[in-house]
Amino acid sequence: MNTTIRLGHIDLSFHAASAAVVQAVMQDHGHEAITSAAPHEEMFRRMGRGEVDMLVSAWLPASHAAYLAPFEKDVRKIVALYRPYCLWGVPDFVPASEIATVSDLLKPVALERMERRIQGINPGAGISRFSKAMVEQYGLAAAGYHFEPGTEEECFGAFERAVAERRWIVIPLWSPQYLHHTHKIRELSDPKGLLGGTDDATLILREDAAPRVAPSALAALGKLRLGNDVVTALDYALRVEGLTPLDAARAWLKGDPAAGAR
Known about the structure:
Layout: E1 4-10, H1 13-28, E2 32-38, H2 40-48, E3 54-60, H3 65-68, E4 75-80, E5 85-91, H4 108-113, E6 117-119, H5 126-137, E7 146-148, H6 152-164, E8 171-175, H7 179-182, E9 185-187, E10 200-206, H8 215-222, H9 228-239, H10 245-255
Parallel strand pairs: 1-2, 1-3, 6-7
Antiparallel strand pairs: 3-10, 4-10, 5-8, 5-9
């Protein structure tokens, strides 16, 4: 079966990494798999309009449920590839005895040393929506903290510069993500539970595209499990080592016996 399948993913590197694994599996089962990327809300709109056949991945039930809701009846949930979650973290040199919870950002030592700008990524991301709520609901805005949406480069660059200079900083992040591969990032406790908990990164397929997918491909994808550590390592391979998504995916599939989901 040499049918073209259109794979969509959110325009972040770790999503590209996991999409490339799905792409490789599809290729191994005779499909031409074409990938495209867009910001969170736009990618879900494209799938709702039928412009992509498969989306890697919808974080459900918390982060992306609102984006999927308008057309959820039109899709099939294939598999949860990994279990992502959002977090607010600090470099491990920030003492846990001083800063352990989000509320601790109001302590005198934090107000003396912590950067007030919380630099995030694009505003449609779940972590961005959650972070805006946290600044308000934990009373951080009154102390001068503010969430600033931006690019991946702005968010990750701000963190890495602060670490290099031993400055105290909060990063609104998630797992899996490549910074966890090279940095010890300590998660702050969120007693109010505003960060959405743990999601399932769910591979979804439009029902009207399902008949064009080889049964063997569907069976293989249904067995595919990446896990947070693998996606973190794949993201690192893209962002730091300079591999293409498909090269990183192929290397992992070749080297991992459990990749027999192919």
